[in-house]
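Still learning folds. Look over my entry:

…
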Amino acid sequence: MTIDKLDTGVPHPARRYNYWLGGKDNFAADRESGDLLAESYPAARIAARANRAFLQRAVGFLAGETGVRQFLDIGTGLPTADNTHQVAQRIAPESRIVYVDNDPMVMVHARALLTSTPEGETRYLEADLRNPQQILESLEILDLSQPVALILVAVAHFLPDHPHSVGLVRTLVDALPSGSYLTMTMATTDLLTPELKASWDESLRSGRSDVHPRTRTEFAQFFEGLDFVTPGIAPISEWRPDPTAEEHPTPVEASLFGAVARKP
């Protein structure tokens, strides 16, 4: 895909996320969208940082404790500090990572992602979660006879149809061998105050938000047939928290569920 397909007038979740994280790779439409969402969910920037911290802890666990050496990170977004390949290869230099995103701007910045240790390998694939078969057919550097860590961090909640989104994830998980892992985070209003929940619901009805939160029960449906890693489903800030971290958001501030589960 070439840069002329980049529509700077339409906000994109990857660039909005970049804005919330304090990055510079975003446009006015992304900033406007981010500010509108922050009106209904004031802790949006805190949640973005907490989500990023969860990703780093989860990848550290997968590379360090499970022995997984292959990672498929879908909806990766724009590169920031400590991306999946950096965390994994710091622990296991031979790790192989495939990043997937559907934003042309991420492609522009792919060189920042396409770095690797000499022992490992990193690739970028421009594709969409809504087409899992295309993704599965383009994983040349991953050996699907060996365990793969599938990472879907803050991406599936952009799909409004819950049963359809569960089916898309199931297609990916079914293609992976025993010993693989599913890592996900997803927005929820279960953890919010009634006032904040009402505000979020209104932002969806008015079209200001494109994030479709799920209940704990709905989130659990993505993991059916898998074995949860302790502590199971938890608010992202409470999933194996780092006591040395500078920031310790509350579940209200970081209103996403997170979990890691193994395919038996």
User: Anything to note?
Assistant: The chain has a mean pLDDT of 89. The beta strands are 70-74, 96-101, 121-126, 149-153, 181-187, 227-228, 234-235, 256-262.
